[in-house]
Amino acid sequence: MKPTLLFYCQHSVGVGHLMRSFALARSLAQRFRVVFLNGGPIPLGLPVPAGVELIDLPPLGMEDGHNLSSRDGKVDVAAAKAIRRAKVMAALSASEPSVILIELFPFGRKKFAFELLPLLKQARRAARKPLVISSVRDVLINARPDQQRHDDRAAWLCRRYFDAVLVHADPRLARFEESFAPRKPLAVPLHYTGFVSAASESKGAQHRAHVVLVSAGGGLVGFPLLSTALQAHALMPLGARWPMKLVAGPFLPESEWQQLQEQARGYADVTLLRSVTDLAAEMRRAGMSISQCGYNTAMDIIASRVPALVVPYAVEREDEQLNRATRLAQIGMLRTLAPSALGAAQLAEEILATMPFAPAANGLDLDGAERSAEIVEQLNRTDRADHRHAEVAYAI
User: Fold this and answer.
1) Are strands 212-215 and 244-247 parallel, antiparallel or unpaired?
2) What pLDDT, in 10s, does the model give residues 212-248?
């Protein structure tokens, strides 16, 4: 019988955390019984990985980057928190996991400590303590006004409750300590897994149509980029203009979707799509890509080797995408346009400059999902063996 792994994932703005977590769960399910606690809405058409047991919590998100909001309108935030906490604790009791894998916390998701700290405390009180692992992306947010206090608190929580940290990055591009600097050492083992990509890397020559693909992840904060791309398209001379395909994203508000449709009316060379099942496949066929620079979008760009222009999502306290975009631009993987410079005329110029761009050869490790599963399986085996040895020593 497979050991049980309880996987907690909370996506709050886009779908990047969910997509990465699903890719991890898909690989982990080959070695574990995976029980998946899902804290946000799942886009229509996105399949749950085979063999994964899904437990949906009342969906919560971040309204303005700071405050929790209910995502389904059925219950208010206070009621949702109480229901969620009860369901999380019930899942822990019922599954009796050998491993608990928590996405991002304690390095983020502070607003969800109301359910995660009870989970961690109960896990530590169990007769057979589960292995507790944090799963984090390549770059952490490093622009909080209380950044030092945040890092110190996260390190303390990690030392107290966690046994290991999986860093889903290639250390040749991004190292954990570059965006996390507590005053006291973390003192918990770090394991670099490589990047987690659901897309297969393009090999050899491929046919690319003269099409500009514009996407904005889940779409919740994508309207300014999508709308400006349509404005830039209208400014470009017909002889130099490629057809444009916009993928709005499943979470783009309906009112903004209608605005895009109205804005695109009359342009025979513009295609609007609400969402697609495989963005990387669209990138492999496109002549160039315009997007933000979330983790999964960046992985799709790298794997597809599309000529890409990124406009990172960056607001107060959110510098993760800008950090990632800068690193990838420095090694020639893509081109960047600063969010503050986003305007129709400037974007039109950047589109023309990106059309002939050739991304550098990719030497980054994109096998992070499989490698993560291998690491977790080995850590669990070692932990169980150590536990058995401790029991024998105690008996003697």
Assistant:
1) parallel
2) 999 998 888 999 999 999 999 999 999 999 999 999 9
